[in-house]
Specification:
68% helix, mainly alpha, 15 helices
């Protein structure tokens, strides 16, 4: 695999498709209560693993989008963080508002003011509880954004270190994941549910093993473009990684689900997809699947809202029995894909482009 082969394949089509697949896994995981059978648990009960794939992809993309930064580190650090705010905040805040809209008239903003504030500031609300969520924000799936936004902040700080920025990242995560647990008298753990009795409770969140997926993504971003892999290996690894992931995901071999095992199986899957992205003759997935990845953020945030409203609609027309059927599950999935597609093209893209034009035009225009 030659670095020169990146010219047209920088779009990372397979990686985008994998991101869409990860979003669908999370949707199916939450929607599976409509079916509530043994086979639905096998098929969708481990869909939470899509989050780990998201985090790995985030780490990779952050390296890819900043690898050309060679100077003006202060300005580039600010630009990076502003880009992340523009990308995340409008959509997250809007959907959070719609999600809690029915409760606002009941005084929700006053009775839950601390939760609302922490949700909007991406702070885990109850760090004295088990991980990896450490309490749910107003829009429950937003717990993953608490990790994402802290990662983006650390990455923005790392840019200030110039060519040594990745050393900064590795040192920070080594401190959080290894040294703090050991020096506090705790033990290293790959269990996401870990709770350590820190005096500063927020360290529970900051030292959760789920962070290793970001670190893995960063490492992939640094290494993969420099490695030469032949076409046959890229193709065979693609199919092998899918097979191994499915065996792990469905629990066929009864392998424990933890951060290390997730790292291996999800990491191999992402690596193989990227190898084919980076190889000029690698396997490339079709546009229809890639587009799911483009709208994955909208899909991830919207799906609880769509599921909730669907339940309300069928309850109001006295068809609540329908909400416990496979047909309802499929309807929820299809509507999530459709509404997310419309939301992505008619809101997410437009508001992002508009805010970038206004904010960056005023500051750096």
């Amino acid at each position: 695999m030659q670095p020169e082969s990146l010219k047209e394949k920088v779009l990372y089509r397979n990686m985008q498709a994998l991101r869409g697949f990860a979003a669908l896994l999370v949707c199916a995981y939450h929607f599976r209560i409509s079916i509530n059978t043994d086979w639905s648990e096998i098929a969708f009960g481990n869909g939470w693993i899509g989050v780990q794939i998201f985090f790995m992809i985030s780490g990779y993309i952050m390296v890819h989008t900043t690898n050309k930064i060679k100077d003006d580190f202060k300005n580039n650090s600010v630009k990076f963080m502003l880009n992340r705010f523009i990308r995340i905040l409008p959509l997250y805040y809007l959907i959070t508002f719609f999600y809690i809209a029915d409760d606002i008239n009941d005084g929700y903003l006053f009775t839950q003011s601390a939760l609302v504030l922490k949700s909007l500031l991406f702070i885990a609300p109850f760090t004295s509880t088990k991980g990896p969520q450490y309490g749910m924000p107003c829009l429950e799936v937003g717990w993953t954004l608490n990790y994402e936004m802290l990662f983006y902040f650390l990455f923005a700080v790392s840019i200030l270190f110039g060519t040594r920025r990745y050393w900064f990242m590795y040192v920070v995560f080594a401190i959080l994941l290894i040294f703090i647990p050991l020096f506090s008298g705790s033990v290293l753990s790959s269990d996401y549910l870990i709770f350590r009795n820190y005096k500063f409770e927020y360290l529970n969140f900051m030292s959760n093993p789920i962070w290793i997926h970001f670190v893995f993504g960063v490492t992939l971003g640094l290494l993969l473009p420099k490695i030469k892999i032949n076409k046959s290996f890229s193709r065979y690894s693609f199919y092998a990684s899918i097979l191994l992931f499915l065996i792990y995901y469905t629990g066929f071999l009864n392998i424990e689900y933890n951060a290390i095992n997730d790292l291996f199986f999800c990491g191999f899957l992402l690596t193989s997809f990227l190898l084919n992205d980076l190889h000029t003759e690698g396997i490339i997935l079709p546009d229809s699947i890639v587009k799911l990845g483009n709208q994955s953020f909208s899909m991830y945030l919207l799906h609880p809202l769509i599921f909730s409203y669907l339940h309300t609609v069928f309850d109001k027309i006295d068809m609540h029995f329908f909400t416990n059927t496979i047909a309802f599950f499929m309807l929820a999935i299809l509507l999530t894909i459709l509404i997310s597609f419309l939301f992505y093209y008619f809101f997410e893209l437009k508001i992002t482009a508009y805010l970038k034009k206004i904010i960056f035009g005023k500051i750096w225009g």
